[in-house]
Amino acid sequence: QAGAAASPAAEPQRPLSVAITEYHLVLLFAGSLKVLNRISERVVHEEELDGNFRGVPLGLARDEHAQVVYLYTSEALYSLEVRNESQDVWRVYLEKGRHDLALENAVTVDQRNHVYGSKAKGHARRGEWEDAAKAYACVCGQPSFEEICLELIESQQPVALRTFLRERLRKMTPQERTQATMVSTWLTEIYLDQINAAYIRHGRDSKEHLAALEDLRSFLQHFRRHLDESTTSRLLSSYGHMEELIKYAGLVEDHETVVQNLIQRDRAEEAIGVLRNPAVRPLLWYKASPKLFLLEPHATVDAWIIAGKSLDPIKLLPSLLRASDDRQPAGPHHKEATRYLQHCISRMQNADCRVHNLLLSFLAKEEGEGPLLKYLTSEGLSASGEPRYDAKFALRLCMKMKKVRCCVQLYSRMGLFEEAVNNALHVDLELAKAVADRPEDDNILRKKLWLVIARHVIEQDKSDKGENIRKAIAFRRETDSLLKVEDILPFFPNFVLIDDFKEAIIQSLEEYNAQIEGLRDEMDEITEGTEALRQDIAAAASRVVTVPQGEHCAKCGEPVPQLSENAAVSAAPAPGGLERFYVFPSGHVYKTPCLVDLLVDLSPESTARKIQSLCANIPFLRDRMPSSVEPAPYGQEESCRRLDEILGQEDPYCGDLLVKSVSKPFVTEEERASGEVASWGI
What is the number of other CB atoms lying within 10 angstroms of the CB of residue 209? Predict the structure, then answer.
């Protein structure tokens, strides 16, 4: 019985009704209402049904749309509103160790930080430091960044610290630029320490060392935007990782650092490859070219030629000057420098004197005079034939290097033909003869030069005297009769038989006789011409031109008063001796005022002003002149005489004045300004 009595007391109370929400169970009992969490299975709320509660509880009903649970009794209806049901769900999941679900339900930053912190501590307790570092990297509040770093350092977990810093760096925003730079710099040093440790423990070629290097390179490539270029470069340099420094400088496009380090390691071709990048400024070319040219002259010159006009040859001259100090013309630096300068002159049409002078100095050091002579006579000249090099510098250089033929060419170009001939006689007689014939318009100088050559030929030839004389006579014929026998006689010894010169003297006398006959014929022709001219002058003095009565002026078309039938005045000259009209052999008749106006229009400005100033002193012409004209400083008679000389020179309609007037515009500026041209419009 006792057992039977105890059994009903232990039986659990059954709920009258159940309502299910997203995270809770609502249980209705006869005397109470309980809310049970579905995740933790704990009662989170309990309500006793007494006091104002009316009726017998019958059941629960849930409105899914309104998120309301209704409790209905025998006498009333009650509602339970569901608000913020999930606000503590994250905590429930956290207590049960389900961090992923806790993060999904965490709403605020503090809640998420709490979850990440709990997750990280859990991993740390289990010794899973890599996972702990990744979880710590997601914490934005407490624990702080410094506290997390100290914990990882004190736990002697460098790999976890590196993972934490790298993950934290990924999550930094652009506003955290300073923090990102500091973290990335710290990470760089950690990677470098890791490389050194791997090198010490396992050696240079070990997998561990190569993996550490690859980690550093990957970090520099992916996080270069956070790194400070100068600080990172100093770090890499101080640790001796120059290859990584070169790669990093290439990533951040610090071309100057890349080129400098490649040159220091004699990797000139790689440096040239970097410089050929279009993004590289020409200034870096100029800074690196001296060392590059010493290391790889051929590749450097090829790169210069490909760059073309983007590089200024003048700024590359310092690189080539080192090659000019090379005493071995056959060396590669000498040849490549010459090749580039010739490219600048022939292809780029560079006319700068400095470029030409430097090429000149290189060519002067080569064996033989062919290349230098070709440059002096063609490549170094402009289209007009003017030298683009400094002729005086070229002459000094050729004299120093004993380039005699080039000296002859330069002396000739400078007009110093005597020096050119004297130098040419030391190397080639034919060259001296060619130089002597160059001043074609100066026979006196040509004769002087040929005499120098003749003296040299006679004094240098020590053969038989008779043969010597015959050679001299034959040489005289080459001068095209410029030299006479008497010109070369002083060069022979005093005791020379005249018989040896017999033929030459006879030929010379015959030439003189022919010249005398020619001069006599010219004198006879001049005498006849003079007599004919004298007769023409006498005939012109008595020449008469017949003008019909009533002839009209050729300019204005009006009858000439002195020639009209009703002329009351005789055809006598005007006061002062000036004619009233002028008649020319062409038959044109001009009234004096009309002739003056015509000459003022056709004559040059200076002659027109002279005519106007003379007319200002003559009464019947004074009124036709502008008021601004100043009278000439002569009397009336002298002014008439001077004006008569000008007016009677030539017929203005048949002479040179009318021909020259073709170049004058039909409409003057005064006519255009006065509106005359506008009045012609239709």
Answer: 20
